[in-house]
Design brief:
Blueprint (H helix, E strand, L loop, with lengths): L26 H8 L15 H5 L9 E4 L4 E7 L6 E9 L2 E8 L4
Antiparallel strand pairs: 1-2, 2-3, 3-4
């Protein structure tokens, strides 16, 4: 699933495009950092997107993980070698796992 994400904040350059995978769970730590608030000491599920907002070409090792129903999960990564991005989908149904790897054509 893809959700368009646009962020405008003081100090960020306008009209930048970044194709690195991100998740909506990354919004909380991003907003905390952009607002200059202290990051909670507890473990957060998301990661701040500020490094990508300041430099869209920055290295980003974190995948986007999506649950597509009770028994289907997707992992989207940014590959640094070969094609930019792959969609890896692991589906578990009736104890028969299947693995499908496709090139992400939207990157």
């Amino acid at each position: 699933t893809r959700n368009p994400l646009m962020i405008s904040a003081p100090g960020l350059r306008k009209k930048q495009k970044c194709t690195k995978p991100a998740q909506l769970v990354d919004m909380y730590p991003t907003l905390v950092e952009l607002c200059g608030l202290p990051m909670p000491e507890s473990q957060l599920d998301g990661r701040s997107l500020v490094p990508l907002l300041t430099n869209p070409a920055a290295d980003w090792e974190w995948p986007a993980i999506t649950c597509n129903g009770r028994d289907s999960f997707s992992l989207t990564t940014d590959s640094s070698t070969g094609p930019r991005s792959y969609m890896i989908t692991l589906t578990i149904r009736w104890s028969t796992p299947t693995l499908r790897i496709t090139r992400n054509m939207l990157s």
